[in-house]
Amino acid sequence: MNPVNYLYLAALLFAIGASGVLVRRNAIVVFMCVELMLNACNLALVTFSRMHGNLDGQIVAFFTMVVAAAEVVVGLAIIVSLFRSRHSASVDDASLMKL
């Protein structure tokens, strides 16, 4: 398969994730869309790494996945805390957490 097709797929995944972040109000769905955008960037990094014949992009993508795993833990903890206090997972309620 042509490597350019992987870049098109990465752009499509990023666009889907960006539209989900802009349109949705549920914090879990927004969080999943952010992760989709992050995985699209990883796919582009690995594709460019493969096209240029070095491992730099793959190493960066690996470390990005490690950081994303930590982000998932912290992000879901915040969402669960928001849900327990407000009984809703809406991002509009997140601004009320400071009260």
Short summary:
It is built from 3 helices and no strands.
Please write out the topology.
Blueprint: H1 3-23, H2 27-52, H3 56-86
Helix pairs in contact: 1-2, 2-3
By DSSP (H or I, 4+ residues per run), the number of helices equals 3
Q: What sequence of helices (H) and strands (E) makes up the elements?
A: HHH
Give the strand content: under 5%
Separation of the first and last Cα atoms: 53 Å
CATH architecture: Orthogonal Bundle
The first-level CATH class name: Mainly Alpha
Mean pLDDT: 90
Rough outline: elongated
CATH topology value:
Helix Hairpins
Question: Which ranges are low-confidence, i.e. pLDDT below 50, for 5 or more consecutive residues?
Answer: none
Number of strands: 0
Counting helices, strands and paired strands, the structural category is mainly alpha
- What is the count of structural domains? 1
Radius of gyration from the alpha-carbon trace, in angstroms:
16 Å
Helix content: over 70%
- Biggest sheet, open or closed, and with what strands and sense? none
Written account of the structure:
The chain has 99 residues and is mainly alpha-helical. It has one domain (3-98): Orthogonal Bundle (Helix Hairpins). The protein contains three helices and no strands. It has helices at residues 3-23, 27-52, 56-86. Helix 1 packs antiparallel against helix 2 (27-52) and helix 2 (27-52) runs antiparallel to helix 3. It is elongated, with a radius of gyration of 16 Å. The mean pLDDT is 90.
